[in-house]
User: Fold Fumarylacetoacetase-like C-terminal domain-containing protein from Canavalia gladiata.
Amino acid sequence: MATAACQKLLELSTKIVAVGRNYAAHAKELGNAVPKEPVLFLKPTSSYLKNGGTIQIPHNEGSLHHEVELAVVIAKKARDVPESSAMDYVGGYALALDMTARDLQAAAKSAGLPWTLAKGQDTFTPISSILPKTTVPNPDDLELWLKVDEEVRQRGSTKDMIFKIPFLISHISSVMTLFEGDVILTGTPPGVGPVKEGQTITAGITGLVDVQFNVEKGKRTGNS
Assistant:
């Protein structure tokens, strides 16, 4: 897929399918069991934030955490895709952050509720430009990194993912149709942590792409 066409994929996106606990070390750092099958949740496309934008900390939420992830961008409609041909449905890749209001997530988990408020707010999915599939010959061996100001917080490799990309596409497409432009967030390596107002996040895929976002406190709106 040509570079120009790749950049338009996110405009077509209908959903973000995120995979939780897909790195064993990250599952353990949060006190979670390593899953036997993918842990999936959805994020709205309204949470996208382009490179250079400003991440908003909810005004009433004091614990916003960063999670750096490889994003897989779907090229065409996918339903009940076999693992053997799953990579044919990939249009490109991106570097993304799954910003998480950790206190809200903890409260939701303890009450058996969805993670929507913790994961789906505006600016909670910062994302890079799309890398055409042809420019990423081995997505199973990419180094992801993230810094807050000048402190390295996360550094890990996609080779440590529990569930690999072909399996994820096959599994997800067995329960829901993936459309052109949809994004799969493949999980985060260990080292997640909080960010505060005034800090700057830089992150990247070594040798391929990097992003930068400032962090600000959000304004109170409506009855929130």
Notes: The mean pLDDT is 94. The first helix runs from residue 3 to 7. The two ends are 42 Å apart (CA to CA).
